[in-house]
């Protein structure tokens, strides 16, 4: 009687946690080994549980032992077979519901939904996954590059004040270096434009 009283609140609530693994089944059309999957139901409680497996599309699947019992602190494997593999079912999501109740009770104490999907190919899925990862990496690289290019103009604008002056000075210095040095008499350039070696050195220094 004491035990009965202890677990009575759980029974009344009707939302007993159900521990089942996995919670998603993926069947691959091109891989026969995936057409049979196993659900494991765990019973961590002090009392035995009855279970029942329901499905939204029972015609597609064969459930071995769709009803049964799990002893306290034990687990049970439920085998689910996909028996109608066809292209029109690719990507369709079906649902299984696993209901549990206590041996002596009729009402469901708890339930868990498991989704099932049929996909055309495990290889295709792997390729898609790899392509997606590649796209994400490229996108990250692009965004980093984009951030860098965005940051650079700020640095330039900070130093844009002297930049025009620098360019002008550079042009003047290049012109100065191209002009003939004093003492070159056979030059076509008028004498007043002839620069001394020192003036050319200054121009070269400024350029540098």
From TrEMBL:
InterPro entries: Ig-like_fold (IPR013783), MOSPD1/3 (IPR039283), MSP_dom (IPR000535), PapD-like_sf (IPR008962). Plays a role in differentiation and/or proliferation of mesenchymal stem cells. Proposed to be involved in epithelial-to-mesenchymal transition (EMT). However, another study suggests that it is not required for EMT or stem cell self-renewal and acts during later stages of differentiation. It is a multi-pass membrane protein. It holds the Pfam family Motile_Sperm. It is found in: Endoplasmic reticulum membrane; Golgi apparatus membrane. This is Motile sperm domain-containing protein 1. PANTHER family: MOTILE SPERM DOMAIN-CONTAINING PROTEIN 1 (PTHR34441). The keyword rRNA-binding does not apply. The keyword Endoplasmic reticulum applies. The chain crosses the membrane at residues 164-183. Residues 17-141 form the MSP domain. Signal peptide: none annotated. Keywords: Endoplasmic reticulum, Golgi apparatus, Membrane, Transmembrane, Transmembrane helix. One of its GO terms (cellular component) is endoplasmic reticulum membrane. Gene3D superfamilies: Immunoglobulins. Its main location: endoplasmic reticulum.
């Amino acid at each position: 009687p004491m035990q009965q009283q202890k677990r009575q609140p759980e029974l009344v609530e009707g939302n007993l946690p159900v521990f089942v693994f996995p919670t998603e089944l993926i069947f691959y059309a091109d891989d026969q080994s995936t057409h049979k999957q196993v659900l494991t139901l765990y019973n961590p409680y002090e009392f035995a549980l009855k279970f029942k497996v329901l499905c939204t599309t029972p015609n597609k699947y064969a459930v071995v032992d769709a009803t049964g019992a799990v002893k306290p602190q034990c687990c049970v494997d439920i085998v689910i077979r996909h028996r109608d593999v066809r292209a029109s079912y690719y990507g369709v999501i079906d649902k299984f519901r696993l209901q549990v109740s206590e041996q002596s009770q009729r009402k469901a104490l708890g339930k868990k939904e498991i989704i099932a999907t049929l996909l055309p190919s495990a290889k295709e899925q792997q390729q898609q996954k790899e392509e997606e990862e590649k796209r994400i990496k490229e996108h990250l690289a692009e965004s980093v590059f984009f951030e860098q290019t965005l940051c650079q103009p700020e640095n330039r604008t900070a130093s844009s004040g002297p930049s025009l002056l620098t360019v002008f000075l550079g042009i003047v210095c290049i012109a100065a270096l191209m002009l003939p040095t004093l003492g070159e008499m056979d030059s076509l350039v008028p004498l007043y434009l002839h620069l001394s070696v020192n003036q050319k050195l200054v121009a070269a220094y400024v350029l540098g």
